[in-house]
Queue: 3 jobs
Job 1
Amino acid sequence: MATSMSHRFLDACRRRPVDSTPIWLMRQAGRYLPEYRAVRARVSFLELCKTPDLAAEVTLQPVDILGVDAAILFSDILVVCEAMGMKLILEDEGPQFPTPLRTQADVDRLHIADPERELGYVMEAIRRTLKGLGGRVPLIGFCGGPWTLAAYMIEGKTSRSFERAKAALFSDERLAHELLGKIADTLVAYLNAQLAAGAHALQIFDSWAGALGPEDYAKFGAPYIARVIAGLERDARDPQPVIVFGVETGELLAQLAATGADVVGVDWRVPLDEARGRVGPGVALQGNLDPATLFLPLAEQEIRVARVLELADRAGPGHIFNLGHGVIVGTPVENAKALVRQVHAHTPPR
Amino acid sequence: MATSMSHRFLDACRRRPVDSTPIWLMRQAGRYLPEYRAVRARVSFLELCKTPDLAAEVTLQPVDILGVDAAILFSDILVVCEAMGMKLILEDEGPQFPTPLRTQADVDRLHIADPERELGYVMEAIRRTLKGLGGRVPLIGFCGGPWTLAAYMIEGKTSRSFERAKAALFSDERLAHELLGKIADTLVAYLNAQLAAGAHALQIFDSWAGALGPEDYAKFGAPYIARVIAGLERDARDPQPVIVFGVETGELLAQLAATGADVVGVDWRVPLDEARGRVGPGVALQGNLDPATLFLPLAEQEIRVARVLELADRAGPGHIFNLGHGVIVGTPVENAKALVRQVHAHTPPR
């Protein structure tokens, strides 16, 4: 990565001065892009994840089309669970584990995945993406948070209230520790393989963090993220930044900041200056425009983007612009392009 | 209402001393009860809402079966929208408006409903429920929050991200004001009719409050709840308490407390002592056990109930025990019964 543009994202993660606010969008490679839909017309979601050339192709699309400051590898947080021994069905209606975890024996049967052998297609996609990027912008690798993956594996599919997962983990701490521990150890190996393949930064998506109250998150959520981060073998001189993110995490921000993460992602419910008060001065903030904003007329969108930037400036150094959650299907590409232009026009105070 | 038991709920709403902590459960009349399922085997959800004898019957079930301290009328927040002129389909898969609001003309066509003429079955259900209660416990009437109803009417069904509703309201404040104003005025008349029919308290379910960031909620959410509450014709000597509730409202609690509500409902994400700091001393708190707790073994459930009670005591006078959201389908009735017993064993400090 030779140009200053390509470092803007990493500099902001490290709370160093930047020429303008960097931006990328969660789910920036996705169904709102016609170019993505053209690829998906030929292959299923899971095939796309497992075909390095195609995964690299869609990873690059938003860099070329929108001009974002980072690429994020196209994949899914649940491929790890498949590698641990679970049958996985990934379709647009939402992912499913047809034989969810039900007993201690089910958990015992899971193995700590070997990333190069069982998830090699991810590392190969990283290498091909890096070639395609040619140093233009950094590449973010990622994984799901241990709690979120465990909840998926127990529920078998997305859930409104997670009663099965909560009942299983809350009522049997030995089982909870075994399951979350196995997942965390797999994630350490997986993320280290992503770093070895060349990822410049990592994001841990603990998407369902906010389903847990703060006392439960302190037991079943944050400690396992901390364990993953502690296990990373990062560049000693310029360690690759780690971002943690979840939605509905207003009450969990301090815990997320204490995991060892460099950056905490914030959904649109908590203003960034308020978030700063909760995470302290030691981490950068990522976020947090309401994703629905991209359905507004551009002039109205601009006012709301300016407001996020204003609150970010108030929160102090270290801001990566992003949405508060993933790009919504149906988002007009024109709005996403305008968003990138507008954020780039902003220089945060030193 | 002659006995002291029947006043415990109202006393707590008014932050007066109580002999033991009162409890009721959101969605306490519902599919987890075999007695409810027996009624539903004979009629559709909407028929049940519109048949006063049956609505009264299922309203009374949890009072008889669980021994809760308040009944809440069995109905649905969306019947009001039907009365305003929208076609409504209410089935177990989730409610739908097959012709959602799309244009200014659609909004213009809505009328402010006349509750006695267009929602008379609700008032009749209240009168029959009161007869069945015979003063044992107070009866809570309810409605949806204006933002939540508007969002449903624009989206046409439940939504993950509400981009249509947000785009419509955020980009056209005149339309937003007309729609939210019409809904609020309908709700004033509707709740006043419920009070006239004998409801002892009211709850406003702004279920989707948490989908809005704090600045948007200050524009499109809280002011319309305040308008509804301001329009109520309550008993001058002992005004019927009003409870406001939404989920994911951590950042909105102060706004909810400022609407004029007597009680603010809190989901399980915010500990009650922390919630007290946000709402100030002037309101009672309702909540906030994670509904998934009722899937735990009773001993483990008991520990978690005790913790909510401990934090509530710390939050000071005025606590109505409830779940942080509705009873989950599949909840064991035995757990719900044990919950009521355990809460009743607790006397809050004076």
Job 2
Amino acid sequence: MIELDLDEPPVVVTAGTSLFAEALSAQAAEPREVQWAPPVPGSEGALAAIAADPRTGPAAAESVRKMTAARPYWVDVIPASQALGLSPRELLHAGPPVSWADASGPLRGALAGAMVYEGLAGDVDEAARIAARGGVSLAPCHSRGAVGPMAGVVSASMPVSVLEDTEQGGRAYCTLNEGLGQVLRYGAYSPEVIDRLRWLERMLGPLLARTLHRGGPVDVRSLIAQALQMGDECHNRNRAATSLLLREITPALLEIGAPGPDVAAAFRFISGNDHFFLNLAMPAGKVAADAGRDIPGSAMVVAMARNGTEFGIQVSGTGDEWFTAPAPIVEGLFLPGFGAADANPDIGDSTITETTGIGGFAMAAAPAIVRFVGGDPADAIRNTLQMYEITLAEHPVYQVPVLNFRGTPTGIDATLVVRSGVVPIVNTGIAGREPGVGQVGAGLVTPPMPAFADAVRALGHRARG
Amino acid sequence: MIELDLDEPPVVVTAGTSLFAEALSAQAAEPREVQWAPPVPGSEGALAAIAADPRTGPAAAESVRKMTAARPYWVDVIPASQALGLSPRELLHAGPPVSWADASGPLRGALAGAMVYEGLAGDVDEAARIAARGGVSLAPCHSRGAVGPMAGVVSASMPVSVLEDTEQGGRAYCTLNEGLGQVLRYGAYSPEVIDRLRWLERMLGPLLARTLHRGGPVDVRSLIAQALQMGDECHNRNRAATSLLLREITPALLEIGAPGPDVAAAFRFISGNDHFFLNLAMPAGKVAADAGRDIPGSAMVVAMARNGTEFGIQVSGTGDEWFTAPAPIVEGLFLPGFGAADANPDIGDSTITETTGIGGFAMAAAPAIVRFVGGDPADAIRNTLQMYEITLAEHPVYQVPVLNFRGTPTGIDATLVVRSGVVPIVNTGIAGREPGVGQVGAGLVTPPMPAFADAVRALGHRARG
């Protein structure tokens, strides 16, 4: 026993398993418990190698600096064939690479629907047969500078928004949001779905292009920043951002000289869908994340994406390599008539929002979202606070009023994830497991740690030289 | 000394002056301090009489039930002459009654500007001479079922919105919001101000009337409820509500067949002013507060209003009687180039928002407002929490997400104000002291306790018999 001579009672700090703290509490001491867990087994060597690599700190700082310096503007709406060089038999999808054979129900539904829309097949059964024998080529949206919500299917004729980073020059692309209910991105493919896709192609896309040409580019970063002061987190709550966007573009929309009923239909369509802005928030994230890519030694995550079968990440210091694990199940609230048995595993590129400091990471700014994804407002605040443990920076423009305007936690460091055991918090829609069903709910999902551990091992390998 | 035999350490509860608690703390005890202060001196007898009156509890409950049951819709825009029966030489103003001789600078500026606008005078100097010799009659907006922000001047030709309580049948009225900068309500009267009033009368008012006739009444209660989930408190922050309103009315505005440039000008005008919705939130409050009027025995406040010289309240159980005290000074943030010396005392009917459970009472829903009125987000939450101490109910529809969707504190009980020493929290714009200057800042203001004490004495007098 060591004799101590103290002016004040001693304070005991405990770390690791809570047994230590509990034992002290039982003896009427008041331990200060530090959240700490050993790193993921098998990653210790890689973590040590990365820590020893002199590039590590500066590389991470540089990648998050470039990510947060991005200033994405919505500059145009053009066909995917032109924007992404897509040929008629090329289809893009959300998440890491996947074959037709391994594709989940909603992704198959969306791919088949897109083939019918493109005239590659007369119906979805024929489309499925063509796809199964390799009659179309599949590639991730991320491989072409694009992102897509849920199934994320992009085909040549679809209009896509062009987002340009006016600070650093990058571009990113995303389709127009189709609205709610029966929509392609949730794997639905009814004639109503295909008709809407044609209306987007022939009516809304060209109208929005003319509106942007007349009114000028729209500062999407500014809209996100404002919406975070208005209860959005810009992944599953985009009501304020969609409202502000309408205020921004409607004057020019009224002035392009389009027929009155077309203008009214365009306004009603956008106003009828609080998620319209999501398809701008996502490419705004993509262009920011891409600015932080390919910095040797950086452990910053530059993509998190799910194809409905696998969850995958890409890290700045490891190029275009995907680190994947089975897509997890989403915990959340279901629409009337649906339950957990109807849910597909996690799907979509919309995790680009969390990758860049909004979405689940900004839930403290959007307490009302818990009515949609479950939990209570205190959970929303806790989620945001916890994300500071695994991120590199506080966003200089995206702020959370209730945290006294603290910048959102931005730039996930894969080594911090593996060291702490804290995985990114993601909120998301839930697609029906069967093709053709559509959305069945929304909730929170925990990305799989093995994807982060594999990324850290690959980075460790590079650190060792 | 009393001997106590306790299983646990005793807990000391202290009330009243904090000296008791401080003395215990100095002796290493941990007192639980209860916020309590003696009632305002001179009001004890009235409070006792009111407490002994069997009508008191049921009357208060009935008045707040009727206030919160109101369901105000925006049904029309018509000239004030028609809506309020105003003759050309009648002018309404904010707050309790006041004469020209006692009117403050901004109220004189607005009255003179309105007289020029109505053609009653060739310029503001002539208008002042006419007013000084009694050439116009003045009355509070509240006396005609109307409310007006800041100076709150209403004259016969101005278009006013008609709000109708579809549940209980009442109606209330308010002018259209003029926008920011040089505007009549802040006492400005330049030619630009008068021209804008004419444009409201000849263009925007009729366009909005046609829009409402085509699209149908707008559910203002629903817009307020949604805006409280989006960072507004609907007094000094109306950005979300104005955005949602535009989404609601624009489809019909596009379909009334008005010339394209007029429609674009109307949209730009509303979208260019985040406070446009205030002039709907205010009459929505007025029609709700009026539903709770004239319940014998009820101490519920049904009006708080300031004319720039005096602050006044009306209470349900004392009819149309005003209880007044000198208007207080606003503590807040000033626009560049202005300071406290430029500020007029508190002015405007916009405190109808606080009277009905929003505005300062709902600041916890609007943490970003502190950038406009001062303080930090924690203050905003504390302000809302404190208002539960002096209110009768939690609003069934207006909710604060960050307080786990608790209803806003609604229905101020004047006896609770006098008993507790807690006065309602009000946030407000600050008008320049000199006529013609306009807005100089925004902040928080503490209504004067004597007005509440006088109301309680009057109610006590009625309780006695």
Job 3
Amino acid sequence: MSNDNKKMVKEITSMDADFAQWYTDIVKKADLAAYSNVKGFMIVRPYGYAIWELMQSNIDQMFKALGHENICMPMLIPESLLNKEKEHVEGFAPGVAWVTYGASEKLEERYCIRPTSETLFCDHFKDIVHSWRDLPLLYNQWVSVVRWEKTTRPFLRTREFLWQEGHTLHATQEEAEQETMQMLNVYAEFCKNCLAIPVVQGRKTDKEKFAGAEATYTIEAMMHDGKALQSGTSHYFGDGFSRAFDVTFTDKDNRLAYPHQTSWGSSTRLIGAVIMTHGDDNGLVLPPPVAPIQVMIVPVAQHKPGVLEKAEEVFRTLQSCCRVRMDKSENSPGWKFAEYEMKGVPIRLELGPRDIEKGVCILSRRDTGEKISVELNRLTEAIPALLKEIHENLYRRAKERRDAMTYTARDLNEMKEIAATKPGFIRAMWCGDEACEAQLKEQADVTSRCIPFDDQEQVAETCVCCGKPAKKLVYWGKAY
Amino acid sequence: MSNDNKKMVKEITSMDADFAQWYTDIVKKADLAAYSNVKGFMIVRPYGYAIWELMQSNIDQMFKALGHENICMPMLIPESLLNKEKEHVEGFAPGVAWVTYGASEKLEERYCIRPTSETLFCDHFKDIVHSWRDLPLLYNQWVSVVRWEKTTRPFLRTREFLWQEGHTLHATQEEAEQETMQMLNVYAEFCKNCLAIPVVQGRKTDKEKFAGAEATYTIEAMMHDGKALQSGTSHYFGDGFSRAFDVTFTDKDNRLAYPHQTSWGSSTRLIGAVIMTHGDDNGLVLPPPVAPIQVMIVPVAQHKPGVLEKAEEVFRTLQSCCRVRMDKSENSPGWKFAEYEMKGVPIRLELGPRDIEKGVCILSRRDTGEKISVELNRLTEAIPALLKEIHENLYRRAKERRDAMTYTARDLNEMKEIAATKPGFIRAMWCGDEACEAQLKEQADVTSRCIPFDDQEQVAETCVCCGKPAKKLVYWGKAY
């Protein structure tokens, strides 16, 4: 690459020098999002939105395959409705945006912009549920919500964010609990199969659970800097909301009963998870299932006879097997290489006169930088296979890093030592007392991420904080 | 159908008895939308939302094929931003919802919930447009907007509605004008090919144009009751917004210039258009491209040996060629027939023991009620062909009705007479004076729908209102 080219190339802060700045640089220079002049609100730009559309279509298919239907609720909630469930209002009311005027007139009752929609769904359920025959109701909506955050960062925490919120209603506790777990599994599978992100599934402690839920389950991912990112949650409500909103049904024995409820959500935060799980100092690295461009064709020496024609032919051929684009602009190959690395395109396909003579092209992998020469007539098999391999490699690499950055602490000193020096998850026993969670936050600056399902090794006999007997293994960490 | 069955069947008001009630009945009984307890806001229910998803995916593909990209802007607009373009703020500010508090604190500047997003897009364009190389920008977003309407009706006019809003920026006036017309054509094609709705394309008079636009173009559809429904609009802004928001670019001659802008929108109102264009006294009639269920299989005498097995086999076969469902519930065939007629399913497939013996089934068309016996081994050809035929018939029928309900008035008396007695469009000359539009509203209760492109017959020498010389033919009517 010539010096001239280098100057044209977008440069970003290195991950090790300043992780937060590296993140912001990628968000801006890969054209994912822009800051708006509405404080705390972001603009999701075309490339970022295209990633979101792929995430949406993948997970929406999973929801629908399990019988869920999409609906759309109002974006405003009257204050009296928000107030109906005590814990819920205490959790959310302090952080909402209030609409007080409509068309120049002061409203008799103020409305908040939904921070989440349990209250609206319950109000609707009350009208449409009468008999056990009406259950289960398996609903979801794709909307944006507003929470008036003080500190914001694109995709990770913004005053408005795009998400899906599932809300379901069931005749029995057992069925609702199964749904809660099923949807947590959907999130975990989606993270693995579409985002190449390994997650720890587990239950939140009471301190960290959703306002109004009986139990909150979470998938926790580990970012490149060792911090945790809560990437999706699934809540079991019991019949608390049903009672608060007077949702009843006649069961099979003709008795009036309260249905059991769940909700579950995931958001554009997952774009942040992708950036911070797979990205590197050259920019974004996208898992193929959510890459708007999976293969970028860069013709080399494109003015030489036959190059563009061959490149166009390859382009047309590949349209049947991947999301392919070609850049035949006047920008130099060096600029193009850097640009599509920044944008995380999984495969760059280089094609020059000498390649054409030999009937081959060069495939350059974004994940490893490796270059492979492949025969042109083998591309429609080679590319899908390589996309799969890249995905698996991204997942394996992220999992290995996560495992290597997961530590075990047996007492408070060990916990403080690890928390201060080794970014990552810390496995440690907990007695179940919220006071210990508060202590650990104060002394080691960690929060409980979850009580994992798949890892309940008894690493010590006693609580890492208070020394009392403890049975639960908790993953602790610093979190976004 | 037995009396017992009849009682189970949902009944609706007849169209002739009370058109408004007929509409509301369909909205509720076909499970399209529900009233919420948030005044003026609707809940889009699963069946209605599934129709919307099909509309979205069809038109979104058309947008993308023309190079448009989806993005997502904030839902809130600071008052100072809304105020920047004079005509725009005068048109919209009086009807918005104002957020005045965020997280218990009074905001220094109040925000409105977007009624439309020109101001936000311009504010973003200012940041990202520098050179002619950055143009055109072809953006669209799928969001909901809020306008504080006094009188609301599901899908037709609600305080919040789902829509898409396209916003584009161009180097030249000519290119922006082409885009404006292109997108109007996209709407017209979509209405014809996906909704089977014929529309009149034309230009709005200045009185009826969008606040801040230089020109507004519209597609106007005629509902069953002869009223007009504005079903999509496309606006040419010139460089007015660019000047107001200081959006500039360096053109090819290295001079600073203001780009030219367009916007265009369509909404869930189109669901209302489908209901009122094709519906009948048995309920909704859906055009096949937007029917969530295109074929409903109803097994007859389903307890007889072999019936369900054969129905399942047909069901599996048809999955390759249409959106098919089967109802093998315990409800009577009569109930099922009425239910799927109410829901507008284009084809009902009946299959009973005698049909199976003969190797046939009965296809019942929702649009005509006609029943056809078709050989089972011909279904995968017969059904797509029949869906196409149904679509064409719906379009033809709607167009014939519209043409039959389009009248011509040569003077004010004729106009008043037609407006009072014959629901529909009225073709009449107009001098171009807004005062005449006001007069016609007062005296004949009609508004100008558009100055149509394809019908500029000089039906009289003089303005239908004032008698002065007139060159423009205008379509007038009562509108939703």
